Amino acid sequence: MARDRGFRVIRLPPYHCIFNPIELIWSQMKNNIRRNNTAPKFSSATIDIIREEASKITAEMWANCVRHSTKEKDQYRARLITPLIINLEESSDDDSDYFDQ
């Protein structure tokens, strides 16, 4: 269904919330709610605070979280992928470097 609408679904590794920008937004929102909420849990005042905090999320915040997640993903990939360098300049028919003789 996503592909039919021009979207690409990307699976994230479990327990790597740093790769998911919405988790960063949600974390900021929860911290602000905890800091500002003095009402009992699940009261209408708490719901109002949640709505207020959600309305404070800007396109700039999203862009920053996407940029941060992309940077983290790139650093993670760089640690996992070891560069492979093949020297095409040297020619050798001798496989003695690879096999015991």
Automatic annotation (TrEMBL):
Gene3D superfamilies: Ribonuclease H-like superfamily/Ribonuclease H. GO terms for molecular function: nucleic acid binding. InterPro entries: RNaseH_sf. It comes from the Eukaryota. This is Tc1-like transposase DDE domain-containing protein.
